[in-house]
Amino acid sequence: MSQTTTAGGAPVIDIGHALDQGPFTALQKGVIFLCAMAIVLDGFDGQLIGFAIPMIIKEWGITRAAFAPAVASGLIGMAVGMAMAGSIADRIGRRLVLAFSVLLFGAATVAIGFSPDVETIIALRFVAGLGIGGALPSCSTMTAEYAPARSRTMAVTISIVCFPLGGMLAGLFAGWVLPTYGWRALFWIGGAIPMAFSLVLFAFLPESPRFLARQRQRWQELVKLLNRLERPTPANAEFTDSLEAAASANAKQAVGMKGLFTSDYARDTIGLWLAFFMVVLSLYSAYSWLPTMLTSEGLPVSLASQGLTAYNVGGVVGSLLCALIVNRFGSRIPMIIMALLAGIVAIAMMGIDTKQDTQMLITGFGIHGLFVSASQVLLYALCAYVYPTSIRATGTAMALAVGRGGGIVSAFIGAAVITAAGANGFLTLLAVGMFGSAFALMLIKRHIPPVSGRITKV
């Protein structure tokens, strides 16, 4: 490990260098696995409502529009949870925030199964959204802080893939539970699983070494953790983090929100915000309303659930392929092509007879999900590339917040479009979102170059 000594002779260890240059141990992989499973459960619980909506509407005799606030409240809760989780985790640690977030959305999901009316679901979906939104940044932070530099990009990419993977599992789960046990059991069982997993996190998930390095009173805990990570550390060691110190120095030069709209970055900021908004509009229109649209066309609940499952399967495949494509060709052309293809696939599906060619329609949604999810994953990477260190966190957070606005809009517009124009109107909504994203991507000046031409930025 990289170290110096203090005037008193105590070793000073650079925690960033120790983590990045040391071995990739079983404990590190175990932590990343636990974080990945938390994101799987995030995607799982976050999408249960989409599968349950058709059955709830039928049982309670309410309209789709009446249920739209329940969809929106979950997305609003996610936005609030994302905004709060980072600052809280910086105060009390990533481990507790992540474990509590999983417990919170699990408990709220169980409670939804006891709901007597839509108003109760609205309130509980907001609480569940707080937990889901809080878990996402905590997981990505823990993953980035535990993975060595050489494996970090792949580890974070895999963690992002886990969200649509969770949605895919939710579809399979809903297809089994809904026809036999009903929508209440869907939430009871679906919430109990993350509640149980939160106990695993409380018991076995260690704290982030980088967080502990900033807490002098917890250095003895860090010494023990580093020894478990196969990085032998003296008991009297002191710690520093040269990368964080450099980032802090750059942060003093940051100009916050104003920095996003200087002459250098204004065009890219507007392009990123619009691209995120339109992609998330399409993505959450599908997550929230795809099964409802298919049941409104006369398909049984089990087949309707297959549509969203296929969408998520496509999302998993697209997310895995996207990193390889960008490494080879850069981001500009692949991202624009994927967004355009997503819109074209949605338009092409308008010619499919929902009842006669159901499997073709479901396959079409799988292909559409592939292109949309790949576009969204790449937008995360593009944010990190476009902005310098001094405004990267602000730029990424604001782009995600604007994108979540697209999801909130989808909660209301999705129900209205299905009611007014049926399947073709819904497909038009998906197409408009992705064509809009393609236009926004054309506005962005800075795109990730191919690996051979990439220049390291700080």
Helix-strand topology string: EEHHHHHHHHEHHHHHHH
pLDDT under 50 segments (min length 5)? 453-458
Q: Which homologous superfamily in CATH is the superfamily of the largest domain?
A: MFS general substrate transporter like domains
Note the overall shape: globular
Strand ordering within the main sheet: 1-2-3
Give the name of the CATH architecture of the largest domain: Up-down Bundle
- How many DSSP H or I helices? 15
- Gyration radius, rounded: 23 Å
The first-to-last residue Cα distance is: 23 Å
Largest sheet: 3 strands, mixed
Q: What is the helix fraction of residues, given as a range?
A: over 70%
- Arithmetic mean of pLDDT: 84
CATH-defined fold name of the largest domain:
Growth Hormone, Chain: A
Count of distinct structural domains: 2
Beta-strand level of the residues, as a percent range? under 5%
**How many DSSP E strands?**
3
Supply the helix-strand structural class. Answer: mainly alpha
CATH class bucket of the largest domain: Mainly Alpha
How would you describe this protein?
This protein is 80% helix and 2% strand. By secondary structure, the chain is mainly α. The chain has 2 domains: 1-252, MFS general substrate transporter like domains (Growth Hormone, Chain: A, Up-down Bundle); 255-458, Up-down Bundle (Growth Hormone, Chain: A), CATH 1.20.1250. The chain has a 3-stranded mixed β-sheet. A hairpin with a 5-residue loop joins strand 1 and strand 2 (11-14). The protein is globular. Residues 453-458 have low confidence and may be disordered.
